[in-house]
Amino acid sequence: MEHNLQHTISLLTRTPAALNALLRDLPETWTVRNEGEDTWSAFDVVGHLIHSERTNWIPRARMVLQFGEAQAFGPFDRWGHQRESQGKPLAQLLDEFARLRLENLAELRALHLKPDDFARRGRHPALGVVTLSELLATWAAHDLTHLHQISRIMAHQYREAVGPWSEYLGVLKCAGHSSP
Amino acid sequence: MEHNLQHTISLLTRTPAALNALLRDLPETWTVRNEGEDTWSAFDVVGHLIHSERTNWIPRARMVLQFGEAQAFGPFDRWGHQRESQGKPLAQLLDEFARLRLENLAELRALHLKPDDFARRGRHPALGVVTLSELLATWAAHDLTHLHQISRIMAHQYREAVGPWSEYLGVLKCAGHSSP
Fold this sequence. Notes:
The structure is a homodimer. Chain A has helices spanning about 5-25, 30, 40-55, 55-65, 80-85, 90-110, 130-155; strands spanning about 120-125, 130. By secondary structure, chain A is mainly alpha-helical. Chain A has a two-stranded antiparallel sheet. In chain A, a hairpin with a 3-residue loop joins strand 1 (about 120-125) and strand 2 (about 130). In chain A, helix 1 packs parallel to helix 7 (about 130-155) and helix 3 (about 40-55) runs parallel beside helix 6 (about 90-110). The relative contact order of chain A is 0.17.
């Protein structure tokens, strides 16, 4: 399936509400526990999504449009959310994510991208040449990879509790996020 | 983390709303496509969750309480949802899942389980002896395994569109659900 801006926006619009419905007011045993040393909790993942809204997608889209391949994106700090999120309640992070996403989708629409723009090229500091279309598709897929990760982190908390059923639960066999 | 009935109920309560927020009115390219032959779409997974509400969790909990190990659960038909869901709009399935979950949580509360009950034993046709506590923990983890699967099915639709970023997206590396 090729990238389609309307499909991307449809998904990006829904993620904050989905995470809100899943996580708000859940007991902390689900939301602040992780999968072991140097791994993330659901709380951390929401913090990372906020940090990405601030520093990743729209700023990088602007760089593609403004500089093309001439200037590489700045590196993304995958632990950059830690200081920003520390001590905040999860409900506040969920609100913040929803607000930033709404603002960024408004910015995306305001770019008035034309069909030709999607092939425009930028430079990723590690991956090399990427297109605007790939960047936007990745924004949506990044939501999904973290929803996937949150489900896995939460399921991990019941790894022992499910007893022999663990054999049937694919989420307990996932090695998709060996690093965060 | 041990099984905790209130934590299980907290999660079970939220899943229908989370899936509703994620999936309702999404373009069908996200919801009816699967990962290839003999795999499920997000639509199929919601159908399976409905089928499980009808035939799996509460009926099996009743069997544990009534027959203990003396009588094995009936086998669960993992394709049992197909006939039930066929031709229905996804919005109707989401409503149906929410309604059945609400009813089943009311039934669960009406069982008035006491601490001793969680260790009561039943018989799974393939896994052998299981406890009521394991069954209830699995009900919650089963929601998570399918949220995990839905995220993966949807991300798969953008596997090509993300270009070189696929390297960073854990969801595209997950082999946790080799069979549905």
